[in-house]
Amino acid sequence: MPGQSVGAVTSQRAHFDQPLHLRSGGVLPAYDLVYETYGTLNAAKSNAILVCHALSGHHHVAGHYADAPNNVGWWDNIVGPGRPLDTDKFFIVGLNNPGGCHGSTGPSSINPATGKPWGADFPIVAVSDWVEAQARLADYLGIDAWAAVIGGSLGGMQAMRWTISQPERVRHAIIIASAPKLSAQNIAFNDVARQAILTDPDFHGGNYYEHNTRPVRGLRLARMLGHITYLSDDQMGEKFGRELRNGSFGFDFDVEFEVESYLRYQGDKFAGYFDANTYLLMTKALDYFDPARLDGGDLTKAMARSNPNTGFLIASFTTDWRFTPARSKEIVAALLACNRNVSYAEIDLNFGHDSFLMDDAHYHGVVAAYLRNIKL
Asked: Annotated catalytic, 320?
């Protein structure tokens, strides 16, 4: 990969005493945000880029920890000196959103009102709530406006919401492999995944912490289902085909095909570290995202709230069937209809929805070219 890694990094924590009033009607009386930064904030504080994470993401975007060199950030291939998110030019900020399970206040955190984990009492959070929390983090860091807000998938939805809710605080938005709202099919996938968790006997109504157990089976199934939708059919065919682990049929229900082995491995790995309540919250935030809802479904009216001076890069991938290029083009059409400055790239990459995470020269070249034209 071009450029260099940012190397060893450390996480930081910011505490906020100002209550966060949520779209659901719930309130977080106080909360912590865990975040990481890469590069140096310039004197004018004009070179900051916010990276918004997707469903299972977190604050550890790039680099590695000194005591865990194999724990590499989830988007390490795009952040660093000489990489598209060039830390010689930009100050990059990644955070774990409220409701997360990687250090920020979430369902596994202690509820100050009870002295026990929040569990099922943790309120539903929406993308607009995350943007509000991120804006407070920007205040904490002394950043009046982001040079850019960037994200893929659910992260792209946050970037879009920034331009509507905080239009004066974002100069560019880079929205990758995303959509203006979920399709019915995507909502259905999310509900099946949630049902796998909710019906796990170890779920205990979301209060499994008190029972010293975790709904591992449900979370494992949810991740397996999700993982199928993140990959393209061609990629799965090329990677696994119908290969048998032992070369012949076993005529039983154990793992036989290589693709089964792969999915179970991914499910087990994910269930080993992710929190089930957080998974439920993140998928609900995806379902609820619909910035045009209060405008009668008119996305142009919603995007017209963005700053006329804000620039947009919208990128999609040809094999992404969960967030198809057609969904990105809906965003482009709405932006053009309200005379916004928008660039669009449809990239031929064979990794399905996961393409936005991949180290591809053409894809990274598109992002790098756009960012090079940002004036600080």
From this structure: yes
